[in-house]
Amino acid sequence: MTIRRLGPGDEEIVVQLGGERPLTHAQAADLVADERTLYLAAFDRQEPVGYVLAHQLPRRHGDPSQLLVYDLEVNESSRRRGIATALMRELELISREHAIRTGFVLTNSSNDPAMSFYRSLGGVCPNEDDAVWEFDYLA
User: Fold this and answer.
1) What is the 3-state secondary structure (H, E, C) of the chain?
2) β-pair partners for 44
3) What is the pLDDT of residues 72-91, one digit of tens each?
4) pLDDT digits over 116-130, tens only?
5) Whole-model pTM?
């Protein structure tokens, strides 16, 4: 297995990894062109089998930036082989290289597999009182 950061020219891989939520080539191009976007893909031989998508968020106070892990997915047939862990570890290495000290991910506390996975990586869930508010700007 190999992991690499996707960039311009890798749009087809991003589209291929879309699964049930495929992106257009234009959307994929926007993602991989953004320097603050970290889109890492895992390959088994030459076949993409998983990805993690994260965004470096600039901050006004404290550390200059923080990492939001937005999406993590491994093809069902490739799960339970350490691919998600490898993707997250590579994301950690890149974060360190860019002096990003902290990161976060949002998930439901009822999602036991995700909670266990992020805990196994050393993640800390500071409290379960946080709420996520969504806004529809097109309404």
Assistant:
1) CEEEECCCCCHHHHHHCCCCCCCCHHHHHHHHHCCCEEEEEEEECCEEEEEEEEEEEECCCCCCEEEEEEEEEECHHHCCCCHHHHHHHHHHHHHHHCCCCCEEECCCCCCHHHHHHHHHCCCCCCCCCCCCCCCCCCC
2) 47
3) 999 878 888 899 999 999 99
4) 888 898 888 877 666
5) 0.88
